């Protein structure tokens, strides 16, 4: 009787583990969600009221993320009718292994936004010294790089600053260079792959930081939280944070792909929509 009970219990545990793994491996990584934020700020020029930014991050193309999945992602992003599209790093898991394919370029060129498409490097984009491969794809796809530099987005004779910095882990980020066009009178958005850089950014005239890198932990245990998070993605892991006295609004995307292990649990992939509004400061999350 005792052996029968033990065998039954072991069988139940193994079956549960198998089901859990199958869900984390095959089902949740395909359940792309859209996280929407509305950020209202008196600092935002009125001409930019209603500006819609779509952020996607951490594709890790080639590591269990196929061109077929990329096509679906692009269609979903394009359906959001963004004013600006930004990609915040880690285009490929190991770019040197990513053979040039026109299909990838075709996917990227399908994305359109009236105020432009912009991108920054992530740490994986520098693996094996292959960042030039990523830059070639993004340029061919119509994306503008923001590597320690900034662009002015203009509407009706008003402007905001969209800045970007290079990767913290594998390159040389220069916040001073990236924010040289920013001051207390300019509403500034910064693209920074690693979210924990916010501890440095909070001292600068920056209003919004858009980041990825952490994958939201990729695997989250109920009532416990994320299991493993990477360096520079441990303080700010997922969703929205207000940092410093300004405050700096930090939005952290869970990203689209996976790395290390091709699984997600209680942490589905996502794109983010950040809608900016002029008015008394507050944030809504949907």
TrEMBL record:
Q: Where is the signal peptide?
A: none
Q: Which InterPro entries match?
A: Calcineurin-like_PHP (IPR004843), Metallo-depent_PP-like (IPR029052), Metallophosphoesterase_sf (IPR051158)
In terms of SUPFAM superfamilies, this protein maps to: Metallo-dependent phosphatases
Tell me one GO biological process term. Answer: lipid A biosynthetic process
Q: Which GO terms describe its cellular component?
A: membrane
Q: Which residues form the Calcineurin-like phosphoesterase domain?
A: 51-216
**Sample GO molecular function, one term:** UDP-2,3-diacylglucosamine hydrolase activity
Q: Which Pfam families match?
A: Metallophos
Name listed for the protein in its UniProt record? Calcineurin-like phosphoesterase domain-containing protein
Lineage at the top is: Bacteria, Bacillati, Bacillota, Bacilli, Bacillales
């Amino acid at each position: 009787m005792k052996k029968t009970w033990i065998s039954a219990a072991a069988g139940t545990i193994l079956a549960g583990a198998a089901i859990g793994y199958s869900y984390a491996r095959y089902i949740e990584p395909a359940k792309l969600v859209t996280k929407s934020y509305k950020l209202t700020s008196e600092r935002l020029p009125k001409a930019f009221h209603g500006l819609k930014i779509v952020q996607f991050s951490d594709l890790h193309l080639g590591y269990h993320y196929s061109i077929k999945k990329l096509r679906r992602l692009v269609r979903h992003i394009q359906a959001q009718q963004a004013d600006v599209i930004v990609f915040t790093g880690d285009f490929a898991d190991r770019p040197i292994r990513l053979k040039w394919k026109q299909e990838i370029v075709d996917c990227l060129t399908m994305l359109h936004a009236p105020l432009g498409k912009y991108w920054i490097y992530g740490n994986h984009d520098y693996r094996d010294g292959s960042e030039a491969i990523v830059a070639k794809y993004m340029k061919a796809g119509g994306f503008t790089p923001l590597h320690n530099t900034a662009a002015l987005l203009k509407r009706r004779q008003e402007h905001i600053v969209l800045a970007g910095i290079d990767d913290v882990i594998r390159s040389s980020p220069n916040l001073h260079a990236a924010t040289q066009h920013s001051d207390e009178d300019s509403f500034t958005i910064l693209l920074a792959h690693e979210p924990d850089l916010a501890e440095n950014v909070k001292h600068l005239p920056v209003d919004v930081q858009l980041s990825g890198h952490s994958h939201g932990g990729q695997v989250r245990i109920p009532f416990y939280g994320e299991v493993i998070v990477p360096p520079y993605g441990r303080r700010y892991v997922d969703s929205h944070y207000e940092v410093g006295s300004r405050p700096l609004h930090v939005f952290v995307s869970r990203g689209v792909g996976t790395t290390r292990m091709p699984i997600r649990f209680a942490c589905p992939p996502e794109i983010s929509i950040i809608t900016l509004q002029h008015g008394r400061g507050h944030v809504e999350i949907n």
